[in-house]
Amino acid sequence: xxxxxxxxxxxxxxxxxxxxxxxxxxxxxxxxxxxxxxxxxxxxxxxxxxxxxxxxxxxxxxxxxxxxxxxxxxxxxxxxxxxxxxxxxxxxxxxxxxxxxxxxxxxxxxxxxxxxxxxxxxxxxxxxxxxxxxxxxxxxxxxxxxxxxxxxxxxxxxxxxxxxxxxxxxxxxxxxxxxxxxxxxxxxxxxxxxxxxxxxxxxxxxxxxxxxxxxxxxxxxxxxxxxxxxxxxxxxxxxxxxxxxxxxxxxxxxxxxxxxxxxxxxxxxxxxxxxxxxxxxxxxxxxxxxxxxxxxxxxxxxxxxxxxxxxxxxxxxxxxxxxxxxxxxxxxxxxxxxxxxxxxxxxxxxxxxxxxxxxxxxxxxxxxxxxxxxxxxxxxxxxxxxxxxxxxxxxxxxxxxxxxxxxxxxxxxxxxxxxxxxxxxxxxxxxxxxxxxxxxxxxxxxxxxxxxxxxxxxxxxxxxxxxxxxxxxxxxxxxxxxxx
Length: 484
Description:
Number of strands: 20
Number of helices: 18
Mean pLDDT: 84
CATH topology of the largest domain: Rossmann fold
């Protein structure tokens, strides 16, 4: 039974608002154009007022264009009522003919930073669903009040201008883009939209619990006019800074399929480069190469940037990565000492339905069903666990046959992902199987099957949690419009 359903959250709030109609919502959506002729959207729906309004508006918008909106509720398994609430959402949306999917956050739950970990899990579930369905657009219901709270929270932490600008209305996940069409809409207008449709919603008790930072900030914003922010000014600052960051990444970074980035010091460390932009660009590279969710803290980035500018041969540990100044540029690679060393055994008799195994939160190995059945004892681990890797003949052959990889620092090679069987190496992420076979043969490490040739049983893909630049790159004849 759902005991926190309401249709009168705040009648005074509703009376102050203006319901969003089809024309207004179309204007909000077309800011993210283009869409398909018959657009398909995923909509995150918790059952709260914001997401329920977004689901109804998105459904009407898609239906008018011959498409469909699919609502997705994530049951985090953190409250007993969550499963009942998901069923309530499904039943309510069914009255409008809206398809609904419930996804459950599986596995052990964290004991600290619960809201943040739940958010990360939720977006991972959304991203996986985008890959599964092939739907490129995900709508979430953050609104103007959420934006004000985010900006206030980030300013309290001393964030850079980009952080102080708050949430972006559009960002990219691995398999699609996340859109926030209500980011400039007042809460009162959202309540008025549901009130006009006589649509109830669910009140999450955690939204009133002051043990959470966002709730405390929300209450402070209501009581302290001094915490007011100027979203338009902040958005303009964000756009200007993002343009610079995008250019720095496009011009100064080469990201290779083996998960190693090469930075052009002349671009990123130039004296006339905006300091905040350089810090963010460096942080984005470290986050992507290290497979992290966030860039390192500003003070850590400040220190690394200053050291690289004063010493072009510096070797710095930062965010689970190593920044290694070399003649050809700054090499950024995963820090071997920060990786889990326990081998990941593969179940070849009953592989997962997708046949995909994630390694070190950065790489995916996709099984080849045709070759997998004949294999046994397969496992995944870093290349540094392999005995042959530590031989001089192997590294010499690697430099001759795959020069770019072979000439990387030894520590960078050690962190590359590898697939093994009982006889040794089968494949290495970022290195063609044929070249690996030639390297082993040239190093005198032929396998018992003969002549050092390896039959592929799967393929590697460098797949960090977020793209190098999650604001996205966009082809445009005007350089000022580089960022989407």
